[in-house]
Every structure is written in structure tokens, then in C-alpha cells.
Amino acid sequence: MNLPFLFAKRYLFSKKSVNAINIISSISVIGVTVSTAALIILLSSFNGMEELIISMYSKFAPELKIEPQKGKLFTTNKSVFNELRNNPNVIHYTEVLEEKVLLQYANRQYISTIKGIEPKSLNKSIGDSILVDGVYQLSRDSTHLAILGASVQANLGISMQNTPDLIQVYSPRKGVKNTSNPAEEFNIRAISPGGVLRYQQDFDNFVITPISFAKEVLGEYDRVSAIEFYLKEGTNIKLFEQDLQKKLGEEYLVKNREEQNPTLYRNVRVERWVVFFILTLISIIAIFNIVGSLTMLVLDKQKDMTVLKSLGGNNSLIQRIFFYEGLMIAIIGCILGLLIGAIFNYIQSTYGIIRVEDGANAILDSYPMLSRWSDYMLVFITVTSISGLVSYFSAKISVKELNKLKATD
Question: Which residues, 6 or more positions from 282, have their beta carbon under 8 angstroms from its beta carbon?
Fold first, then answer.
């Protein structure tokens, strides 16, 4: 039987002779509980926002993308690309041609990025979720259509409610300079706006067109900027990426979604951990309530400690009693905090009691929450470790001060 633990348990759960100690112990438990609940709610909130942001990005970004190691364009006349297109695990395969262009609509002009893709590669299943207005298609009755990013639509002032005019697309002709007629220096094509995408920072400056139209505008008929595709559900993306990179060699780069936009993923994670460490520092202040609780308890139990020493107990035994006392306060508070956090996360994710201000964001109605077991373990280990250190040094210092008081007496 662990004697220090039995003493600590009795001191914690039995009524103390001094009522102030009860209050301080309760405050210590409450402090740990609140800080623990705040940590788990914070992490779950960031998980929810991270999931939302990445899911929004994933709707626009392909699972895998092939780009040239050097330069901006490459040819696709190699057999490995034909094999990839016909691979049974590959879906929504498309060659992509991207470049900056000048758009003109009515009397407005705007510099945008044209992205030419194969019309049949459009993932119709996500069209409704990413489209604000219009239709999610690139052709109608053999007529080319353009899907516009939010910034393109706003800057050109295009209204899909009325029958919109054609958008004029300008791109410099390669090798043509300083002609007598400035119009001869540009390839000029017209296209009908078909739809408008939801706002997404990385894609709102795009105008998506059929790749045949982009090739005519840019004058690039044999080369492309990238190849994008998705994989069938259940395919091991990481293994597929590695195998494809080996086949392509060092001339090409195969990128997954995180590698396509490393800044987005890095920022989401960095923000999460920065706020977590800030709240952890605040939690440390709350955990220091344990110091006051243990100090008061040591003073209250002077007689008990004297009797214990007369029976052969040493300072190490006494220190462990108060160390276990502080650790039990921390564990009880931590478990209560985790339970409160879990209940709050469930209520918020189910009923959305904390809602986003009306009109602030059309994408979500309430703040998303996503609980992960790894976060519960992280918070439990963090809080109990800090509390354990605080309890250890507090017990050690308190017992030393107790011995000084006895020596003075």
C-alpha cells in the first residue's frame, strides 16, 4: 500500500480544519478544469476551421499535379502520360494550360489568369458546392463557356442574371513586336461567361476555359503547364505519387495537395500551435493555484507531520504526500475539463449554438468543431506534466519552510 498516496487522498477528500484550505483547493481544481476545457475547445475549434479551409481548397485543387522541374511548359508526347491517362485508378484527368491574360468586358479591363482544362474532366459532383451563379460547364451547344473566379466577376462587373456580353481575352503573340498595328501584337478571342465560383483566395483570380480555347489565345498548341488528376477512392495516394515520380524521373515534379500549396497548410498548423502555446502559458498561471493550496495544507498539517516524523517518516515521505496531493488536484481538474470540453464540442457540432454573425460569411452558419483523440491526450499530458512539476517544487519548498519553522520554535 502506498502510504503517501493514502495520506494525500485523505487530505484532499476529507474536511480540513481550516475552511480557507477547502476554498483554495476548490479554486485550484476549478482553475485546472477551466484551463483544460479552454485548451481542448481551442484545439477542436482550430481542427474544425482547418478541416473547413482544407476541404474548400480541396474542391478546387486536384489530388495530384504534374509540373516541369524547370520552366513553365512541357510536352506530353511521352508514353508515360498516355499510360497515366488510361490508368484505371485515375479519374478526372486533364492537361492544363495557364498564363496571365488581359480581360475586357464592356468598358472594364482586368488582368487575370486563364486556366485551360479538358471539359470532360470537370467534377460535376462538386459543382453545386463551389458555384455561386450560372452553370458548371465549359461548353453549351458547341459554344465555349468560361467559369469565372469571384474577383474576375467583381472587377469586370459581370451579372449572370441578364444575358452577359462576350468577354474579350487578350494575350501577347510570341515573336511579334513593334508592329504598325498594335492589334497585331495580340491574340484576341471572345468567350461567354458561364458561371461564377465561390470566393477562394487561391482561385478567385482565375478564368477557367476549355483547353482548346486557351491554346488559341496563348498560341501554345503542343505544350501544357501541368497535368491534374484525381484518384479513385481507396487508392493509396502517397504510394501512387511515389511510383509516378519514379516513372517520370527528375524532369518532372509530382505534387499532392499539400505540396501544391504548402503555405496554406503551414499557416493553418502554425496558427494552431501558436495559440495553443499562448493558452498553455495562461494555464500555467491557473495551475499555480496549486502552490497556494499546498502551502496552506502544509501549515495546517504541522502536527500530523511531527507525529509522522516521530514514527520514522523522513522529509522525502512528507514531500511525496503533498506532491501526490497537488497531482490529484491536477488530474481531477484535467479530467473534468476534458469532459466539459467534449460535451461543449458535441453540442456545438450538433446544434451550432455559437453562430457566425449574419452576413459575415456565407460559407458556414456556426463555428465548426472537430474533436481528435490525439488532442485529448496532448492536453492531458501537457496539463498533468506542468501540474506535476509545480506540485513537486511546491511540496519541496513548503516542507523546507516547515522544517525552518520547527527549528525556530
Answer: 35, 38
CA–CA distance, 83 with 103 (Å, rounded to integer): 37
pLDDT at 317 over 90: no
Rounded alpha-carbon distances, angstroms, from residue 325 to 2, 15, 107, 354: 13, 14, 76, 37
Report long-range pairs for 14-17 (Cβ below 8 Å, ≥24 apart).
16/297, 16/300, 17/300
The rounded percent of the chain whose pLDDT value lies above 70 is 84
Q: Which residue has the cell 499539400?
A: 258
Gyration radius from the chain CA atoms: 32
Residue pair 224/132 in contact (Cβ under 8 Å)? The answer is no
DSSP 139-180: EETTEEEEEEPHHHHHHHT--SSS-PPPEEEEEEPTT--S-S
What's phi and psi for 165, nearest 5 deg? -75, 175
Distance between CA 386 and CA 280 in Å, rounded?
A: 9
CB atoms near residue 401 (< 10 Å): 13
pLDDT band at 360 (very low <50, low <70, confident <90, very high): very low
